[in-house]
Amino acid sequence: MNVWQAESFPVSLHFPRKVGESMRRPLIVGNWKMYKEPDEAVGLARALISAIGGMEGERDVVICPPFVCLQPVFQVLRDSSILLGAQNMHWEAEGAYTGEISGAMILTCGCTYVILGHSERRQHFGETDATVNRKLAAALEIGLLPIICVGESLEQRRAGRVEEVVLGQVEAALQSVAAKDVPGFALAYEPIWAIGTGTASSADQAEEVHSLIRNFLRQRFDSKTAAQIRLLYGGSVKPDNAADFFARTNIDGGLIGGASIQAETFAAIAKAGG
Ligand code: PGA
User: Fold this and answer.
1) pLDDT in tens, 106-145
2) Interacting residues of 66 by C-beta distance below 8 A, sequence separation 6+
3) Which residue's alpha carbon is at the smallest distance from atom 1 of ligand 1?
4) What is the C-alpha separation between 91 and 214, in angstroms, rounded?
5) How far is the CA of 232 from the centre of ligand 1 (A)?
């Protein structure tokens, strides 16, 4: 267990505090992807603290910089309410896996969350439902809170396969996961055609898929457990459409890419999520 994390961020404080259907604590996550070198990352983290400080208790805000920025950014964040996440991890604790990084390593850098199965990793780096499931098991084992990404391609949507594809990904990721391990989880629905394109899904379309996922989770676990999992929307979320998404019953926050690497836009989106 990471000492910084244990002292500064008791994880239980950041779980959804209420389990009623509309009472989940909003979660806004910035996925910085492969942007920002350590100095720039520290500057952006400082700017975010001044822009969204004072929102403690209203929502959870998490930023996920590149691996090399985790430690310096954590030094900036440790006295703030903003939490740190990583964009990926390996499922093994250690080993001969050149270029990979373990959950223990990112935990030691001060991370509370880890993004798993982002579509860019599935598309460019051979991530599969099976590897997402192994990574999820490793994250749970070590005490990292997972943000599992799912979403359909444009072709799959046009072929009417959204439900089959998305629920298939959710089911595969959660294979062998017990209800007791679920509090703290987040699932991000990110239609691939909306990521980085400037064409977001409509809030109605997203809510429809979120409600399918919530129903699936009810059947897979139980109503109480399903009501605890935060479902995020991701894909071209901007300050001018964020509030519309976050107002929907089953949309509990967002996974933000492009708009998260500028303090003003990410702060505006985070403020919309409360
Ligand atoms: P975007 O990315 O906000 O730039 O569309 C979202 C994501 O990839 O998580």
Assistant:
1) 999 999 999 999 999 999 999 999 999 999 999 999 999 9
2) 32, 33, 34, 35, 36, 41, 87
3) 257
4) 26
5) 12
Q: Quote the ligand 1 centre to 233 CA distance (angstroms).
A: 10
The label of the residue with tokens 């457990």 reads: 225
**DSSP letter assigned to residue 12:** G
Question: Which atom of ligand 1 lies at the shortest distance from residue 119's CA?
Answer: 8
Does residue 54 surpass a pLDDT of 80? no
Is 90 exceeded by the pLDDT of residue 8? no
Nearest CA to ligand 1 atom 8: 257
C-beta 257 within 6 A of ligand 1: yes
pTM reported for the whole predicted model: 0.92
In whole angstroms, give the CA distance from residue 250 to residue 47.
30
In this structure, the residue with its CA closest to atom 9 of ligand 1 is: 257
Q: Are 254 and 273 in contact (CB under 8 A)?
A: yes
Least confident of 4-8, 171-175, 237-241, 269-273: 4-8
Please tell me if the CB atom of residue 242 comes closer than 6 angstroms to any atom of ligand 1. no
Q: Are 213 and 233 in contact (CB under 8 A)?
A: no
Ligand 1 atom with the smallest distance to the CA of 200 is 5
Contacts of 178 (CB under 8 A, 6+ apart): none
pLDDT, tens digit (0-9, with 9 covering 90-100), for 140-160:
999 999 999 999 999 999 999
